[in-house]
Amino acid sequence: MDEQVMVHKVNQIALYFASYPREEAIPGIADHLLKFWEPRMLRQIQAYVAAGGANLHELVPASVRLTQRAPA
Amino acid sequence: MTLVKEIDYGTPAATSEVAITLQIDGKPVTVPAGTSVMRAAKETGVSVPKLCATDSLDPFGSCRLCLVEIEGRRGTPASCTTPVEAGMKVTTQSQKLAKLRRSVMELYISDHPLDCLTCPANGDCELQDMAGAVGLREVRYGYEGANHLSEEKDESNPYFTFDPAKCIVCSRCVRACDEVQGTFALTVKGRGFASKISPGDMLFLESECVSCGACVQACPTATLTEKSVIEKGQPEHSVITTCAYCGVGCTFKAEMQGNEVVKMVPFKDGKANHGHSCVKGRFAWGYTTHRDRMLKPMIRKNITDRWQEVSWDEAISYAASEFKRIQATYGPDSIGGITSSRCTNEETYLVQKLVRAGFGNNNVDTCARVCHSPTGYGLKTTLGTSAGTQDFDSIEQTDVVVVLGANPTDAHPVFASRMKRRLREGARLIVIDPRRIDLVKSAHVEAEYHLPLRPGTNVAVINAMAHVVVTEGLVNEAFVTQRCDLAAFNRWREFIQDPRHSPESVESITGVPAADLRAAARLYATGGNAAIYYGLGVTEHSQGSTMVMGMANLAMATGNLGREGVGINPLRGQNNVQGSCDMGSFPHEFPGYRHVGELSVRSVFEEAWAVGLKGDPGLRIPNMLDAAVDGTFKGLYIQGEDIAQSDPNTKHVTAGLAAMECVVIHDLFLNETASYAHVFLPGSSFLEKDGTFTNAERRIGRVRKAIPPMAGYADWEVTIALAKAMGYEMDYSHPSEIMDEIARLTPTFAGVSYDKLERLGSIQWPCNEKAPEGTPVMHSEGFVRGKGQFMITEFIATDERATDRFPLLLTTGRILSQYNVGAQTRRTPNVEWFDEDVLEIHPWDAENRGINEGDRVALTSRAGETTLHARISERMQPGVVYTTFHFPGTGTNVVTTEFADWATDCPEYKVTAVQVRRTMHRAAWQENYDALREQTTIVGAPAGGAS
Predict the structure, then answer these.
(1) Alpha carbon distance B880, B897 (integer Å)
(2) How many CA atoms lie within 13 A of B411 on its CB side?
């Protein structure tokens, strides 16, 4: 997926969950990614976060890290 | 097989619970109060002669043929307009009545051509039948007097003729147009002998007639007759089936001569349509035998090669070997499939089974991705199930109708007619739509409130309505306390009552006057049973899922769920969108909306399908295209979809397709996507196979084979063959066996079988032990998820915004006579109404740009440019332009962008920032399209082609 498109998509998800308290939003975003993002997309965002995660909504890095800890 | 003739009871059924007993010709009969004498007689098996009466219309009492005698009453009252009374003694046959009826018939026949033997209605003419029934033997008045026999025929409509010489002015056509269709296009012009039926002093084709066929069906003579009947004669048998157009799912009788369709007639016992139809289902079935149908399998190695016709075996084995090669080269996840909302449940089920079990991944998706996927997400999250809450009949109990982002008179015309009938009876209407759709003001229907919001501001509007409900004390506290999660509700209440959501605060964002919005919200909350009907104007936004949840919040807060007359009702676009979603077409869900990651569910399918299954979600359609461009997705089996025309950002779609090594198209026609295909498998139309469709009200209806598959195989058989060639056996001899498997594996379908469908006609899921005959209204005793879940729905403006460069907002949609990508309707005479996509533009915007009606204009967005002709229209608000996507050469989706719903990737078709300017030339894309199309659709000897 084009990197810019990916960043836009994940930020949109984060913007939705940002209405919830942080302790709910972060697992909410992670759960959404695990439920709906195919593994190669998940790997792409995980790698992007690991590489610094430019232009991501501030909730995204923590959420993405949570997807790495969750069982596949 | 025989011709199915429904009984005509003459007048509509009465619904009273009070029973009345009377005697008809000495026989006792008990019927509901309000029943006509005519209908009561028919229920005892006694047919009273009639001409102006038919049970789809209110009694009229004009023909004077249905006269009866009633003991103790003077004269001979018309049985159609006389209601039954307790103890009434009715005589339907006597010498006096016979003489009166004969005299009436004499008058009719004295002004009627005596050409019965050559008349197209011969064998299906009520006038002829009545002449026989009353024993007409002579016409004492002769035939030389003043008459209407030289009146000119109107043959302008492509589907039916109007022959006034044969008209008896019974007004059935006028009343059908008024009462059933609600268009009021016909009238009786003149008085007495000069009376004649008129579509408003113009030809039918030029009139307001929408060609629904109700008048043709109601006509008791050959005055209004299908041209196909004139050409072919009367049918000899009927096959009851379900329409393959929109999500209303009308039941039709395919009336046949051998293997040839003579006409499609709406079936009176059809529970979705109750005998009504629209121009598409009724008349636009000619595509099924159109010369463009591709009936031979074809292959080619490269998309620039000519297509080579091959045997079925060769095509299937080539496709399978290519898929296997690709998987061996690029990995098991490098291929996938797309199911079709135009195919049956059984076919859709098999495609997703092929992908999950045969391909060994979850890369399956469906066209609901681009239409109602947010409905699935939003309603499942809030209520617990991915479907509308009501049946269509529910509208009859509705007091306040909210039409939100939908245009039912064009896209769901048969349901729109029922809605209009309810509105004429007094229900009140709120329309929330950027456009002034027909429902805002049409014959005898007017919206009390039209909230013409700016595209992209749905969530702000729904939040503001909820704000009014909460802050003005209009919450149905008892409902919320009993039925909903209170912690979630309290949090939502705190969120929604914030002043930033007030109508006044959002007025500058939405463009909706705060006072109107407040009044509409009050009406919704306090006007009685309030029901929301919505369409793609809700879902096809970056906040599509949020908006669906916002509507659910509003409905729960006001208690407008769980009973007749209320609810949240998605108007599904295609005939089997609901079914394709139910059948597990999404990459994250098995049939019945259960996530592939749920081990307990997955193991059930693993055991039934005798194969290990993956627990990770697969790729959605846009993700498949992204992965193709990235080089990791190389093969795709597409059954009955045309993503190169229907999906957004054509440039990206076609780049993805062009990057694949094996695209298999399974379709009726060489569609736009086929330009990028390597294998073509001929599809079968809905007339050529058995199966089921599920409509927008969760109603599972039978599709019955009327003719053999023209290319030899029904689609489900082709998928089985492909699976087998891939090394995965599927063993079914009939679609009923597929449905049996669906029922075994899907709790909401547990009670569904072909036998039960035969017995009940249709079934609304859930159908299981708790609801053995189905469920018309969902959530009646509690929400499927347990407690209703209020969700926070913050308005977040789309990133697609009008700018100096692209100052207008484009929104796209459909029109009545064309359907979706137009593959079917473009190949019918429906093109006489609409033969090109046009750009609707407000006069101010047109004037600012020097654009006149009919000018070619360039429509440009950041994604691309196309051209089309302008139509100046005040249906649009200034700043908003509108077009359709029915014609591939228009390239509407060249202009739409990759922006999509945050939760489901449903494209934001409804908001694209554009500029419009006059131009003399077609766009470069259009020129390239023509060349590509010409190059990629040649069928012939291979030029270095596949071998």
Answers:
(1) 17
(2) 25
List residues bridging with B264 in a β-sheet: B254
Distances (CA, A) of B847 to B622, B802, B841, B852, B877: 38, 19, 10, 8, 14
Contact yes or no for B902 and A9 at CB 8 A: yes
**Mutation target vs A (from B626, B630, B652, B793; most A CBs, 10 A cutoff):** B626
Q: Which of A8, A13, A40 sits opposite B632 (nearest CB)?
A: A40
Q: What is the pLDDT of residue A70?
A: 52
CB-CB under 8 Å, A5 with B627: no
Contact B363 A38 (CB under 8 A): yes
Beta bridge partners of B639: B666
Q: Which residues contact B61 (CB under 8 A, 6 or more apart)?
A: B52, B78, B80, B81
Q: Decide: B898 and A12 in contact? Cβ < 8 Å.
A: no
ipTM value? 0.97
Distance from the Cα of A71 to chain B's closest Cα (Å) equals 10
Contact A15 B630 (CB under 8 A): no
What's the CA dihedral at B431, B434, B437, B440 to 10 degrees? 40
**CA within 13 Å, CB half, B646:** 26
**Secondary structure string (H, E, C) spanning B235-256:** CCEEEEEECCCECCCCEEEEEE
Q: Is B478 exposed, middle or buried (0-12, 13-18, 19+ CB in 10 A)?
A: exposed
The burial class, CB within 10 Å (0-12 / 13-18 / 19+), for B613 is middle
- As a whole number of angstroms, the distance between CA B890 and CA B867 comes to 7
User: With an 8 Å Cβ cutoff, are B796 and A5 in contact?
Assistant: no
| CA angle, residues B871, B873, B874, in degrees to nearest 5 | 170
| DSSP-based helix, strand, coil % in chain B, nearest 5 | 35, 20, 45
Q: Are residues B630 and A1, on separate chains, in Cβ contact within 8 Å?
A: yes
For residue B279, give the nearest of B201, B166, B343, B183 by alpha carbon: B183
Residue B898: list chain A partners with CB under 8 A: 5
The 3 state secondary structure assigned to B409-468 is: HHHCHHHHHHHHHHHHCCCEEEEECCCCCHHHEECCEECCEEECCCCCCHHHHHHHHHHH
**Among residues 18-57 of chain A, which lie with CB inside 8 Å of chain B?**
18-20, 32, 34-41
Please state, rounded to an integer, the average pLDDT across all residues of chain B. Answer: 96
What does the alpha-carbon distance between residue B3 and residue B264 come to, in Å, rounded to a whole number? 12
Q: Can you tell me the mean pLDDT for A60-67?
A: 97
Judged by CB atoms closer than 8 Å, whether chains meet at B902 and A15 is answered as yes
Q: Is B789 an interface residue toward A (CB < 8 Å)?
A: no
pLDDT for residue A72 is more than 70: no
A-chain CB neighbours of B630 within 8 Å are: 1
pLDDT band at B943 (very low <50, low <70, confident <90, very high): very low
Answer yes or no: is pLDDT of B611 > 50: yes
Q: Which residue of B has its CA nearest to A37?
A: B617
Q: Please give the sequence-ordered ranges of beta strands (E in DSSP) within B718-851, or none if there are none.
A: 762-764, 808-813, 838-841
Q: Which residues in chain A have their CB less than 8 angstroms from residue B656's CB? A: none
pLDDT at B947 exceeding the cut of 70: no
Contact A12 B542 (CB under 8 A): yes
**How far B794 CA lies from chain A's nearest CA (Å)?**
7
For B481, residues 6+ apart whose C-beta sits below 8 A from its C-beta are none
Question: B900 to chain A: which residues are within 8 Å by CB?
Answer: 9
CA B469 to chain centre: 33
pLDDT at B625 over 60: yes
| Chain-centroid distance, C-alpha B226 | 22
Residue A48: φ, ψ to 5°: -65, -45
> CA B897 to CA B879: how far, in whole Å?
19
